[in-house]
Amino acid sequence: MPHLNPTRPECQAVVSASLRRRRALWGLVAGLGLALSGPATWAAGAATPVQGPVVKGLPDFTELVELTGPSVVNIRTAERARGARAGGGGQLDPGVEEFFRRFGIPVPGQRNPRAEEDEDQPQRRGVGSGFILTADGLVMTNAHVVEGADELIVTLTDKREFKARVIGQDKRTDVAVVKIDAAGLPAVRIGDANRLKVGEWVMAIGSPFGLDNTVTAGIVSAKQRDTGDFLPFIQTDVAINPGNSGGPLINLRGEVVGINSQIYSPSGGYAGISFAIPIDEAMRVADQLRAHGRVIRSRIGVSIAPVTREVAESIGLGKPQGALVRGVENGSPADRAGLEAGDIIVKVDGKAVERSGELPRLIGAVKPGTRVVLQVFRNKAFRDVPVTVVELDADKTRISQEPAPSATARTALGLAVQDIPEGQRRELRIKGGVRVESAEGAAARAGVREGDVVLALDNVDITDVRQFTALAAKLDKSRPVSLLVRRGEWVNYLVIPAGR
To answer: How far apart are CA 265 and CA 371, in angstroms?
Structure first.
């Protein structure tokens, strides 16, 4: 609708007819002018809308399949029958077993009836996928594909079969490298997983349920998904099923950007959520497997947990970041450096620890014997703590507990607490704290349990029951309260909300 403007000739002719009509029309014009010019003026002053990308059509994957398909292999594993373990087929969902039988595919984990008389007869155990790294026969796959296998058969797209040997496997990242004796093989092109964008199209090739060279496609749903200690997974909606494990995730440039490794599914089949190992992480592991046959990582000897927004705000950290130290192993590098339970590690040699899952990766990538500087948040202040890392091993120190003493005091927080004997403090390697005998009300709802040890209250270290009781009585009920709590060998912050 056009604007009405009293200065235009046609409007002037109308308003000059009579004073009464002039006043009436002027009021009408003014009212309409306000009604119409307001939004129009706002629209004129608004920022120009950003033109979105024009979607011209869905991608055509045919050329990608022709380019990368010959580099993808099928991996069959066999394991010698070992009593009850060989008969693992009954663990599969009945519908999945029926699917295998209809397509004439051997059921993974199920014994070959003809081999009952010979317990040493290799049995077909499972099917996986992989891809060719080098023209001379190095193949990458998942560690869980080759784990426990007595025999590996790699089949190429031209139907040639090769026996393979394991060069090395790493269970922590689920990466394995195997070797076949061949030459002139079509190797994949390695891409950069860091360049992936959420929403980008990707493709998978593999052997789901033993159906070789199956192609599926989808988009990148998310990045940096922490499902383990050492990997920031790529999440996609590409259809991934049993047998796809170890196969490549490929971008539209025909480059491998990940290894299909895990799915999230309540039924065991595809449910729209799958995870791939970023190829840059996998290649770092593969390089070590080729050089040493294993992966060498470092550790400092702490157990960690995420830092929630509630905890960050209650202790003065500001924003949720870093890794909360829940426990420090006795005699570990962290122990010798003076790290304490309740510390929050926010940087490693200047590199920010945005999420707790990043700390093991940053420390693990450092060469054993190297000195690193950790930036730690403790008692509302940042401090630098130098630590010399050591090689990762499986040893862990357990912290035992003694019976608590009998003297109990109930506090304003709804907690009944006791002092901790000096001998038990030494064993727990704590300087103070009180043990919770019972929790009620808001404290119980916040997660405080019987047996917990309260180490700090609102960033104040606790020495004994008397001090804890006095501090609790002075708390402002209109603001949340943070408790640094030890449970067994773990330490965490619990926040009791305001209005308790």
So the answer is: 42
Query: Is 228 known to sit in a ligand binding site?
Result: no
Counting the structural domains of the chain, the total is 4
Amino acid at position 46, single letter: A
Residue 3 annotated among the catalytic residues of the structure: no
The reply, when asked if residue 245 is annotated as ligand binding, is yes
- The pLDDT mean for the chain works out to 79
Q: Is 158 annotated as a binding residue?
A: no
Percent pLDDT > 70 in the chain is: 73
pLDDT at 120: 52
| Active-site residue, 174 included | yes
| Residue tagged active-site, from 71, 129, 207, 245 | 245
Token look-up 């009604």 returns 35
343 labelled catalytic:
no
Residues 417-456 have pLDDT tens digits of: 888 887 777 777 788 889 898 888 888 888 888 889 999 8
Query: Binding site annotation covers 244?
Result: yes
In a domain, 45, yes or no: no
Degrees (nearest 5) of the Cα angle 90, 96, 100? 95
| Range(s) of the domain holding residue 9 | 1-33
Q: From start to end of 403-489, where are the E strands?
A: 409-410, 415-419, 434-439, 453-457, 460-461, 481-487
Assess whether 318 and 420 both reside in one domain.
Answer: no
- State the catalytic residue, choosing from 174, 343, 419, 452: 174
243 is in an annotated binding site: yes
Give CA–CA dist 367/347, Å, rounded.
17
